[in-house]
Amino acid sequence: MQCPICLSRRYRVVAKKHTGYVEGTQFDIVACDKCDSQFIVNDTDKSIYDIIYSNDGNAGYDRYYRFAINIKQQSDPLKYLADQMATYFCVYKAISDGSLLDILDVGCGYGYLTYALRKAGHKTVGIDISKKAIAFAKKQFGDYFVTCDIIDYHPRKKYDLIIATELLEHLLRPIDAILALTKMLKTGGRIIITTPNKDFFNRSAIWRTDLPPVHTVWLGRKSIMELSKRTGLSHRFINLSRYFGRAENRLLDFVSSRLDNHPRAILDAKGIPKPRNNIVRMVCVIKPIWWLMNYFGRLLIRDHPALGIILTNK
After folding, report:
1. CB-neighbour burial class of residue 181 (10 A; exposed 0-12, middle 13-18, buried 19+)
2. How many Cα neighbours within 13 Å face the side chain of 96?
3. Three-class SS of 232-249
4. Residue 261, pLDDT score
5. What was the pLDDT predicted at 280?
6. Nearest to 32 by CA among 55, 63, 6, 69
7. Would you identify the CATH topology of the domain 46-312?
């Protein structure tokens, strides 16, 4: 077995039978000693994504459904998304020079980011492995979407920009995906990546990202630097230290990650969302508490729970 980021064989098991996203599932988790990534060793069932996208009330993914429903009401859809989450701020910032680009949105989900980019004038196509997500996107936004895995996608042209936001953490072999995407890039083209930031949490943390097999790897800055080296792409981290999105709560992420040492499955065995934590629900509903926590988060915490990276094809 090799690390799916740096291909090293220097790794160690850090957890056996770790709780999975679906009740009753368990996964072994391994840590790479070379690039500091953590990953699962079990095979995964991709049907989990059709379960997620078939339930618009799914805890953890419901915000994306709300974005897809609300996006058409926005006068500037891309700016609206950039104000919500660091994921979209990274995209917004990377294309702020006004150039109109050929863009591939990989792992597009419900399709609202593809829609926002097209409204901003960019030629954009979205791909995703979930048939249900793509069916929703086509119905909501038009015929700009393809149900396809990265490895199986063979476009007739190369792109100025490839967006892979919140994607790498879902893949068993991220290095293979980046190598495949590199072949789709023009010289000087860029890949924008966002992924949960392992460096934000305690060094002793086992898995502070979506439970497997929804997320299969957990990466920090060292992981990205090794990935960049292995793929021959230059990398630059996007500074998110002072970014605070309206749909994010950095202090809540920070505190909950240090208090909650017993992860619970998100879905029951039938794919139905389990009841959410009452404290999290209260904070999400009562806006003054949400904004107050974000204010203190701005003062106390400099790092961000997400990593933003630009990889460039030299």
Report:
1. buried
2. 9
3. CCEEEECCCCCCCCCCCC
4. 65
5. 59
6. 6
7. Rossmann fold (3.40.50)
